[in-house]
Amino acid sequence: xxxxxxxxxxxxxxxxxxxxxxxxxxxxxxxxxxxxxxxxxxxxxxxxxxxxxxxxxxxxxxxxxxxxxxxxxxxxxxxxxxxxxxxxxxxxxxxxxxxxxxxxxxxxxxxxxxxxxxxxxxxxxxxxxxxxxxxxxxxxxxxxxxxxxxxxxxxxxxxxxxxxxxxxx
Length: 169
Hints:
The protein has 5 helices and 9 strands; from the N terminus they run βααααβββββββαβ.
C-alpha cells in the first residue's frame, strides 16, 4: 500500500494545466506543425502560389488551435484565482492498493477502480491520474507519506498498463 496527501496549490495547478494542454493533449505537436508550416511557407511559398495559399491556410488553422489551447489554460487559471480561498482549502489523502485507490477528503471517501482511469502521467515531481482528458488527481511525490514514488510508479504501471506514461527524468 502507498499513501499520499495533496493540498491544492495554485502554482502546481498551473504546472498541471500546462502539462495537460501542451504534453498530453497535443499542444507541442501543434507548435511543431505551426513552425513547419511557416518554414514551408517561406521556402516554397515564393515559387508556387498554390502551395503558398495552402501553407497559409494550414498556419491559420494551427494558430487557432494553439490559441484555443492557451485560452483554455488561462480560463481555468482565471476561475481558480477567482475562487482561490475555496481552492486552497481542498486537501486529499490517497491510499493506493493493487485493486483500487481511495480518495479521502472532508466530503467523504471515494473508491476508484483502475479500470475507470483514463491515463496516468508521471513527471519528475508528480503523478497525474487522469479520469478524463483534462481532469486528474494530482499526487506530489514529496507528498507520499507511506511507501515511495518508485513503489507508486510500479503499482500504477501494473494497474493501468499501457495507459501509464513517464515524462521527463
